[in-house]
Amino acid sequence: MVHASNERRPTLEAVAARAGVSRATVSRVVNGGAGVRGEVRERVRRAVTDLGYVPNSAARSLVTRRTGAVAVVIAEPETRVFADPFFGRQLRGISRELSAADTQLLLLLQETRADHERIGRYLSAGHADGVLMFSLHRDDPLPAMAEASGLPTVYGGRPGWAGAEDALYVDTDNRDGARQAVRHLRARGRRRIAVITGPLDQTSAQDRLDGYRDALAPAAADPRLIADGGFTAQGGERAMAELLAAAPDLDGVFVCSDLMASGALRTLRAHGRRVPEDVGVVGYDDLDPAAWTDPPLTTVRQDVEEMGRLMARLLLRRLATGPGAARDELAPVVTAAKLVVRESG
Amino acid sequence: MVHASNERRPTLEAVAARAGVSRATVSRVVNGGAGVRGEVRERVRRAVTDLGYVPNSAARSLVTRRTGAVAVVIAEPETRVFADPFFGRQLRGISRELSAADTQLLLLLQETRADHERIGRYLSAGHADGVLMFSLHRDDPLPAMAEASGLPTVYGGRPGWAGAEDALYVDTDNRDGARQAVRHLRARGRRRIAVITGPLDQTSAQDRLDGYRDALAPAAADPRLIADGGFTAQGGERAMAELLAAAPDLDGVFVCSDLMASGALRTLRAHGRRVPEDVGVVGYDDLDPAAWTDPPLTTVRQDVEEMGRLMARLLLRRLATGPGAARDELAPVVTAAKLVVRESG
Prior knowledge:
Chain A is α/β, with parallel strands linked by helices. Chain A has three domains: about 10-65, 434 Repressor (Amino-terminal Domain), CATH 1.10.260; about 70-170 and about 305-335, Rossmann fold; about 175-300, Rossmann fold, CATH 3.40.50.2300. Chain A has helices at about 10-20, 25-30, 40-50, 55-65, 80-85, 85-100, 115-125, 140-150, 175-185, 205-215, 235-245, 260-270, 290, 305-320, and strands at about 70-75, 105-110, 130-135, 155, 170, 195, 225-230, 250-255, 280-285, 300, 335, 340.
């Protein structure tokens, strides 16, 4: 793809010619005017106004190395970003926080992993001051690209890859949230409790599965009671059908996202299982779909919008202080999860 | 907000020092190597590799004026962008087309109109090669900012503001689509047909209202049969209630988006009106909600994903050819709308 130049934009050269000074002088004036006589400065400023010259921040960022923008990278295809309310809600928190700091949010969308290389190039090219990255999978190349770009980065969700010990991130206590869900089902008398997990190469999914196991101990989890629903509605539908086939006597299910739970409820209805009479269901997230399901979903609340806010705030602080800040000012944040009891379980 | 420098990124100066050459020589090599002796060129390239130096595209774009990225601006708050499937679908088309051309999609999100100025600054700062803009309202300042930035721009939806005669845009034939919808309701024997419009400062909303009026002629539209639903589900719910209060004898309603139609159906149900027995309903868009409503929605199909594709394709062509291309290569595109008959009307 050849991109033509932006032919209508007045150049630095044109300003220099009109003011009768050198390019370097124009550049100095545009970047603050230090070391330029008042009369010359005035002449350059008049030429800038006359021509409607907009200082190219590519040029300015060579001096200040600032763009006023933060890149957001979600390691999922565009389709999922717009189908899963989790992402919209997290972006809302990020957007509000960045907007309050007069910083532009750049959402870098992608289709497939083949697009990752281009994203890495864009990050390395100095068009943003920092990066927020979320929904990463264990072998994603994106964190290495963020590292190579030299841009300060904050992750959404605990990083699971090797060498991420110093990474800044925001997460909820997924393991504890899962424990609360499963203990609740047990307290309501459920004895055969299944789990529908997210993709286990994501730490949030793995942590919730670990919490499920904790809450069942000392009894061990029966492998027939575990199915992967991939964090999508269709995946939840399919995983619930697998569980009913493998363990028809199940009487409870902990579903690791509300979106998967909406799918699981459809499957239970199609199989004639009443919720909560025959099977108790508890979800995870407490996003809009949870209140809309029939019956309304008992779920584990994580404040997704607030997590977005916290990510943005942590990155802005990192950008303001540099890497040398006291460790207690720049540390990962883990928020609490909280069971919300409605009617499904 | 003070953003610190990206302290870990090796600089041009470091490369120059290591290679024992001037900054200007490094810059020339990084940008193609013209006029630099082979042996020197080799030395610089080795230093680049050794240090892991990534040429800052802020620097490179001073020479080439290319970023390999296209900015997408939706003139709606982040909340609406993620709540309305229209935007996700249009972005999918854009994303696929840009991805195929190895061009990065930058979605510039905003919260309020106060953010427009910052978006204007970012566009003027040379971080993208062109702009795709949609969901504009009549007095939006964004088109003037796109113009001032000098970046080639393609609009989604026919521009309604003065001075937009030469603008490039992609649209569907909204007026004809509306005519098809209302003629269908009349052919099914409806005699009191209401309309729920979008915000009338958008040309798509105005064109659909005009098509509704065309199809009722020579009889004039009764103002009690017209209500504004603002292109949201809640707006559709509210507008339907207003219409039922003002014209209880209505027997048909053309709703200018599927999202508003989902709200209108809820109101009709709450008022005990059966669809289609008592009231025939026709929507607009044919996005996912249309097939999920109860009963499934008769609607006017516009291929929203294809519109996104066409927008991206038109902009890429404009970037490749420059503004001087033959007019038949660079012209607005208007696609056809087509009625899809399901059960609601």
